TrEMBL record:
This is Mycothiol acetyltransferase. Residues 6-140, 152-315 form the N-acetyltransferase domain. It comes from Cellulomonas chitinilytica. PANTHER family: AMINOALKYLPHOSPHONATE N-ACETYLTRANSFERASE-RELATED (PTHR43877:SF2), AMINOALKYLPHOSPHONATE N-ACETYLTRANSFERASE-RELATED-RELATED (PTHR43877). It comes from the Bacteria.
Length: 315
């Protein structure tokens, strides 16, 4: 178990493992934040690497330990080494990590809700505790008009100037959300340093100089073929957030529509977004704009953790 950054060689080996799993499973096993935390100097996360006798990384798990009552994890086993018990041993280490704080529960994401993950989680006595939908929209079809509320103006995000105001509104808008609501100014700056970051696709809505909400878009060079084998670039409505004081005015729908206009103007033909299956207000907003459900990620969990399982894993 390692806290802090992985050395560059190990981080590269984990990315290689994730790429092999993506090719085999047609869905990426590690999401954006865990990948960024591989090399973050002070991530609120611990790494568990399973290595074979030759030192090759054959399995990896990362536990987000930044919350008081739960640990959220992602784990992956090399496709050529599955059904040999590596996943179970990684899960045992995650359970031990969660149990360090009494009463803290462990939850594990299964991207794409693959049959192997279902069987694995079922074998470990876990049940589905959360579901995240991936929705898709054809950008070449006409979309309904969604005007901005009276007096609201939109402008692009200015790096170095807007971080703190955005973070404040984001944490108010996502106060209920376990990951998005915890995004720090550092997390924001890490994304600004990513090659995909483009302030022209990150729009802030203001009234009389006060920030009310924003839409942030992201262009993926390839769609990873998750639900329909699509290889073309795809645009994502990455984050839409509206301050609780400005909710109910139609701003969320209007901002999403502006984000879609931006992606269409970039020449993209399809857009995706992710939303919690329980977020009926958001799903209604996106459905009105033409989004439909394409696939789901699920999170498995169980109650209070038992005692450490005593497995030995090299890190
Ligand atoms: C899910 C995953 C981590 C399992 O790793 P693994 O090392 O193959 O798991 P284990 O060998 O420890 O399997 C433990 C048990 O899970 C069940 N299981 C695992 N994979 C299975 C499969 N493909 N079909 C049926 N049962 C399966 C079995 O009961 C197995 O015990 P058995 O082999 O003695 O029958 C691996 O398939 C993977 O990396 N998938 C992609 C990433 C992912 O979905 N992660 C989320 C996990 S919740």
């Amino acid at each position: 178990m390692t806290a802090g950054p992985l050395d560059a060689r190990t981080a590269g080996a984990v990315r290689g493992l994730a790429a092999r799993a993506t090719a085999a499973d047609r869905v990426a096993p590690l999401s954006e934040q865990p990948l960024l935390w591989l090399t973050d100097p002070e991530p609120p996360a611990v790494h568990v690497c399973a290595t074979d006798a030759s030192g090759e990384v054959v399995g990896y798990a990362q536990a987000d330990v930044g919350a008081a009552t739960w640990v959220s994890a992602e784990l992956v086993v090399d496709p050529s080494r599955r059904r040999t018990g590596i996943g179970s041993r990684l899960l045992g280490r995650l359970r031990s990590e969660a149990a360090v704080v009494p009463g803290r529960t462990l939850q594990v994401w299964a991207h794409g809700d693959l049959p192997a993950a279902r069987a694995f989680a079922g074998d470990a006595g876990m049940v589905v505790v959360r579901e995240l939908w991936r929705m898709r929209l054809d950008l070449t079809s006409p979309r309904p008009e969604r005007p901005l509320p009276q007096g609201v103006r939109v402008r692009p995000f200015v790096p170095g100037q807007d971080e703190e105001a955005w973070r404040r509104v984001n944490s108010r808008a996502f106060a209920y959300h376990p990951e998005q609501g915890r995004m720090t100014s550092n997390d924001l700056r890490a994304r600004e340093a990513e090659p995909w970051f483009d302030p022209a696709g990150f729009l802030l809505a203001e009234r009389e100089g006060a920030l009310l909400g924003s839409v942030w878009t992201k262009v993926h060079p390839s769609d990873e073929g998750r639900d329909d084998g699509h290889a073309a670039a795809v645009g994502e409505i990455y984050v839409v957030g509206v301050d609780p004081d400005a909710q109910g005015l139609g701003l969320g729908g209007a901002l999403t529509a502006l984000g879609l206009d931006h992606l269409a103007a970039r020449g993209l033909s399809s857009a995706i977004l992710y939303t919690g299956a329980e977020n009926t207000v958001a799903i209604r907003t996106y459905t009105r704009l033409g989004f439909t459900k394409a696939s789901a990620d699920v999170k498995f969990g169980y109650g209070t953790q038992g005692s450490p399982s005593g497995v030995t894993m090299s890190t």
